[in-house]
């Protein structure tokens, strides 16, 4: 019997390049791509391909092509959106305060920290124990000096989906700008800026079966949102992101985004079915804590295993490519800031797994993953004094020293 | 009272902790609460700190330790350390157990410095168990085993 290979359940980290996307990119990789800023025919040919890709990305958001700025990925898009908008607003005397969630991606939090070092103040709104944040809680953080609010469309660790419409209403009613990191949302959660008054939206190609190394930032033009660029050079991308536009990369992103939009309904049903199967399988293991909400994005499941040490669990997941809360190779792995913000004690945050599903995932792979995880957890609980206490009836809160309400799946 | 069977390991365990730790972590022969009576245990560590270990000892009338088992909540180094310790304990006089220190465990298993902390908890659990066994003369303890 041949080795079936590892089970890849880390689609929230990156997705495989779709063959159709590679086919679209190939002519621009193998031949002379041309510089889209060049005036000659070769350059104009490249510029036309870039324009088509820009239109495809814009179309996926309900935006106009001139509202899309190419970046190297979502991290750069987050940096450009947050620093660029905050610095511009501050320079015009509009304020120096930002609001974000304590559970945001590091690219958002680190951008905010950088602004704090420049004199801005930042409020990080804590989530509920299930990772959710109400629009009211976020609105309570707004002040007269708030210039920008940054919220993810889908949390990258837990899959939690905030009520963006309600949040946008409060933020826009307050007169602040709204940035949405939508890196995990494309093809999974609908996002239409013709209906949602977001000012800035970060996108990534490699999270939706496109190439790594390219992303985009939606920048609203009506009313116009102005940014201070992070980089300085040529006048590409309206001066917001100088540098030669990588034709193959953006063509790949355009093709990937178009694929996501085209397949969204089918992929959504597939992911929902697999997520249900995964949750049911994990529930069979027993004593498994859900880190997130059942109404979260269909591609992410985050769970903790009481009674099991995170590093030991990670060491027994041979053949599984998942994101473990305690990476085995780290000397002193830091627990997830997202799970900490949700009140998970460090020992439970370490003993967490994020399993993320994708279009190529099969029911058989989900079953194999559940079997491997179940065997590892059962093995470790078999000689765990912590599991002995839990099995004897002590509460998780008592054993782990926490007051956080925890929900089993 | 058999040891735990081997489960396939992520190759990162050997790279991170070393081959000796990986081998014992994959198949800890002395893991699990003991069967039968005549066992005493000592525990050390805290869940919030990420390590707890319980060492089980069974003594004889001559002041020796005839068998040892362990339960552990810890990283692969902790589990391997406790398993190695149980091998070393069996057949020794109670008075010699003090020589089985964290340093000796770490050296025996070549545990990298970044992962040695947990061996101190293993040493403390052994000391707690040995103290209890010594207090009753080394032979008539009974904390119960699996049936407790």
UniProtKB/TrEMBL annotation, chain A:
EC number(s) recorded for this UniProt protein: 2.8.1.7
Main enzyme class: transferase
Protein name, entry field: Cysteine desulfurase IscS
Alphabetical list of InterPro entries matching this protein: Aminotrans_V_dom (IPR000192), Cysteine_dSase (IPR016454), PyrdxlP-dep_Trfase (IPR015424), PyrdxlP-dep_Trfase_major (IPR015421), PyrdxlP-dep_Trfase_small (IPR015422)
GO molecular function, one term: metal ion binding
Keywords assigned: Iron, Iron-sulfur, Metal-binding, Pyridoxal phosphate, Transferase
Keyword Iron-sulfur: yes
Co-factor(s): pyridoxal 5'-phosphate
SUPFAM superfamilies: PLP-dependent transferases
Keyword S-adenosyl-L-methionine attributed: no
Domain Aminotransferase class V positions: 7-368
Organism: wastewater metagenome
UniProt record similarity statement: Belongs to the class-V pyridoxal-phosphate-dependent aminotransferase family. NifS/IscS subfamily.
């Amino acid at each position: 019997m041949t080795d079936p290979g590892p089970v890849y359940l880390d689609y929230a980290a990156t997705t495989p390049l779709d063959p159709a996307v590679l086919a679209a990119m190939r002519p621009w990789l193998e031949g002379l791509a041309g510089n889209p800023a060049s005036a000659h025919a070769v350059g104009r040919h490249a510029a036309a391909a870039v324009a088509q890709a820009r239109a495809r990305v814009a179309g996926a958001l309900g935006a106009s092509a001139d509202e899309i700025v190419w970046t190297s990925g979502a991290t750069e898009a987050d940096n450009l959106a947050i620093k660029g908008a905050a610095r511009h607003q501050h320079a015009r005397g509009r304020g120096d305060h930002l609001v974000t969630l304590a559970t945001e991606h590091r690219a958002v939090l680190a951008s905010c920290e950088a602004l704090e070092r420049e004199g801005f103040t930042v409020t990080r709104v804590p989530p509920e124990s299930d990772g959710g944040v109400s629009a009211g809680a976020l609105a309570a953080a707004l002040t007269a000096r708030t210039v920008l609010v940054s919220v993810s469309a889908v949390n990258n660790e837990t899959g939690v989906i905030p009520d963006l419409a309600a949040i946008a209403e409060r933020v826009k009613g307050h007169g602040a700008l709204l940035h949405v990191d939508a890196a995990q949302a494309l093809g999974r959660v609908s996002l239409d800026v013709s209906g949602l008054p977001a000012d800035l939206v970060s996108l990534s190609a490699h999270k939706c079966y496109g190439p790594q190394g390219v992303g985009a930032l939606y920048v609203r033009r009506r009313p116009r949102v102005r940014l201070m660029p992070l980089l300085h050079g040529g006048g590409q991308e309206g001066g917001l992101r100088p540098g030669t536009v990588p034709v193959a990369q953006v063509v790949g992103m355009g093709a990937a985004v178009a694929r996501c939009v085209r397949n969204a309904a089918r992929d959504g049903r597939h992911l929902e079915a697999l997520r249900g199967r995964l949750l049911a399988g994990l529930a069979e293991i027993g004593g498994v804590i859900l880190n997130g909400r059942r109404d979260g994005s269909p591609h992410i499941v985050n769970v903790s295993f009481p009674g099991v040490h995170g590093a030991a669990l990670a060491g027994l997941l041979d053949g599984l490519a998942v994101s473990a809360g305690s990476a085995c190779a780290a000397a002193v792995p830091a627990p997830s800031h997202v799970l900490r913000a949700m009140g998970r004690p460090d020992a439970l945050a370490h003993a967490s797994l994020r399993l993320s599903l994708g279009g190529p995932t099969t029911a058989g792979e989900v079953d194999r993953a559940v079997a491997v995880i179940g065997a590892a957890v059962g093995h470790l609980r078999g000689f765990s004094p912590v599991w002995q206490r839990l099995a004897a009836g002590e509460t998780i809160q008592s054993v782990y020293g926490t007051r956080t309400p925890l929900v089993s799946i | 009272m058999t040891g735990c069977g081997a489960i396939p390991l992520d190759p990162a365990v050997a790279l991170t902790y070393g081959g000796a730790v990986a081998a014992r972590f994959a198949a800890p022969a002395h893991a699990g609460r003991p069967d039968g009576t005549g066992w005493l245990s000592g525990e050390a560590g805290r869940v919030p700190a990420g390590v707890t270990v319980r060492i089980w000892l069974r003594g004889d009338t001559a002041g020796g330790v005839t068998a040892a088992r362990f339960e552990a909540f810890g990283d692969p180094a902790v589990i391997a350390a406790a398993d190695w310790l149980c091998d070393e304990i069996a057949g020794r006089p109670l008075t010699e157990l003090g020589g089985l220190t964290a340093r000796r465990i770490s050296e025996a298993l070549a545990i990298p410095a970044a992962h040695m902390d947990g061996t101190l908890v293993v040493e403390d659990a052994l000391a707690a168990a040995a103290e209890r066994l010594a207090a009753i003369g080394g032979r008539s303890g009974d904390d119960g085993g699996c049936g407790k």
